From TrEMBL:
Presence of the UniProt keyword Aminoacyl-tRNA synthetase in the record: no
Record keywords, A-Z: Glycosidase, Hydrolase, Signal
Glycosyl hydrolase family 30 beta sandwich domain mapped to chain residues: 395-454
Organism: Aquirufa echingensis
Superkingdom classification of source: Bacteria
Signal peptide range in chain numbering: 1-21
The keyword Glycosyltransferase belongs to this UniProt entry's keyword annotation: no
Domain Glycosyl hydrolase family 30 TIM-barrel: 60-392
Family indicated by similarity: Belongs to the glycosyl hydrolase 30 family.
Listed GO MF terms: hydrolase activity
Annotated protein name in UniProt: Glycoside hydrolase family 30 beta sandwich domain-containing protein
């Protein structure tokens, strides 16, 4: 496990991936991750994998995590030199970086904050319909300064904003957990979200996307909200969409943001001819259902995009099993089903899987565990995202790939620099040897049993 602790141990495995005919291979069973190898030219003929770069699909916005308040709290507590090194490793574009390009942000608290809060909390029994008490103060100590520091390192980082709950006084149960948004506050809540976006933009933190509610069919978390499809449709159609239009906001509204077992939820919203004019697409998790739900919704509404926005790795999970399942389903699977983003859950936590709210997730393992002495442990989710983010930058476009041998799954993307990134996964217990052809060149590749390979071809 030594290779997963600290920063200096990554100097080799994250060496700069710029040379053509190079490949980075991960074998999670032996925990040999992102090992760089030479990808030799081959003269075996064109019987192997073929890249068809002229057959293009969705443009990819990127890969990343949710930056919770708890993550921000822990990262900011690091010594300044170590914190800067970590942020450059995560968000920079240099030779020691994994190039994270998208971060999901909670509007108010998520369940991985130390406590519950919104940006307009008032004493029990009171209301604030004019939003006179709206304030970002609860996030000014940790989350906002960390976001600003990240933005300095990567000015093109994309932010996705998601509320876990409206202010409690807007809900029928007057509590942070569960309940539904009272209809009389639909308009006020829309203005609350507009005010949030405007306030963050004033701080240099413009949100690229917003989902109206995290996991709207799971009111058992803390915080959380039950928002049925008909309720979300009403909220967007008559309140949030018009409020965005009036305020001149460019932030994209994404419907749903929950599991792949209910594709009918976003389809119902997108079927409404008025609502759909305000909605850019829909967002998904995979705690239930099949990743193919993304392409089901995309096929029903081909002019609307799909995004994959959350999947956790658990404290009781096994490294190789988690890594291989997530690579197949979350990274390769979501991209093959038209996703523009593939995001894992929490960026960082402590060894006790905190901070979390009372009633929040007690077993969510962050991409990085930050120990009390500042030691950093890079977990499964770190390498799941890195296997894609380091090679497929924002603005890449998925392209067709054919000729995959039995037991091999994969995806290819044409990068903005006109090189092609390829991600391959060997699902078998045996090494797979094949070739990859792109234009006039052909390379030989050997992928170890249950191994994953990322490469860039030109």
């Amino acid at each position: 496990m030594k290779r997963f602790i600290g920063l200096t141990s990554l100097a080799f495995v994250l060496s700069y991936f710029s040379g053509f005919g190079q490949v980075c291979i991960s074998q999670a069973e032996s925990q040999q991750m992102l090992k760089e190898q030479v990808l030799p030219l081959s003269t075996q003929g064109n019987s192997g994998i073929q890249i068809h770069a002229n057959n293009k699909f969705q443009t990819i916005d990127g890969f990343g995590y949710t930056l919770t308040g708890g993550s921000a709290q822990l990262i900011l507590a690091l010594a300044p030199t170590q914190r800067l090194a970590l942020l450059n490793e995560l968000f920079g574009t240099g030779k020691n970086s994994i190039n994270i390009s998208v971060l999901r942000i909670a509007i108010g608290a998520s369940d991985l904050d130390a406590n519950t809060f919104s940006y307009d909390d008032v004493p029990s029994g009171q209301k604030d319909e004019n939003l006179a008490h709206f304030s970002l103060k609860a996030s000014e100590k940790d989350l906002i300064p960390l976001m600003q520091a990240i933005k300095q390192i990567n000015p093109s980082i994309k932010f996705m904003a998601t509320p876990w709950s409206p202010p409690s006084w807007m809900k029928d149960n007057q509590a942070s957990k569960g309940g539904s948004l009272l209809p009389q506050y639909y308009g006020v809540y829309a203005q609350y979200l507009v005010k949030y976006l405007q306030s963050m933009k004033a701080l240099g933190l413009e949100m690229d996307y917003l989902t109206p509610q995290n996991e709207p069919l799971h009111p058992g978390n803390n915080p959380s909200l039950l928002m049925l499809a008909a309720q979300q449709n009403e909220f967007i159609k008559n309140h949030l969409g018009p409020a965005f239009k009036k305020a001149g906001l460019k932030t994209k509204i994404l419907a749903y943001d929950h599991n792949c077992d209910k594709p009918e939820y976003p389809i119902e919203i997108l079927n409404d001819p008025i609502t759909r004019q305000y909605v850019a697409g829909s967002a998904f998790h995979l705690y239930n259902g099949d990743i193919s739900a993304l392409s089901v919704v995309r096929k029903a509404h081909p002019d609307k995009e799909v995004y994959f926005t959350e999947q956790w790795t658990g404290a009781k999970g096994e490294f190789a099993g988690d890594f291989n399942w997530h690579i197949k389903n979350i990274i390769i699977g979501s991209l093959l089903n038209d996703a523009k983003t593939a995001l894992e859950w929490n960026l960082a936590n402590d060894p006790q899987w905190g901070p979390h709210t009372p009633g929040g997730c007690t077993e969510c393992k962050g991409a990085i565990t930050i120990q009390s002495d500042g030691t950093l442990i890079r977990n499964q989710a770190y390498y799941i995202v890195a296997q894609a983010s380091k090679f497929i930058p924002t603005g890449s476009q998925r392209v067709e790939m054919s000729g995959l041998p039995k037991g091999l799954v994969g995806v290819a993307a044409l990068r903005p620099d006109k090189q092609v990134a390829v991600l391959l996964q060997n699902e078998t217990k045996d090494m797979i040897k094949t070739t990859i052809s792109y234009y006039s060149k052909q390379w030989a590749i050997e992928i170890p049993k249950e191994g994953v390979a990322s490469m860039v071809l030109r």
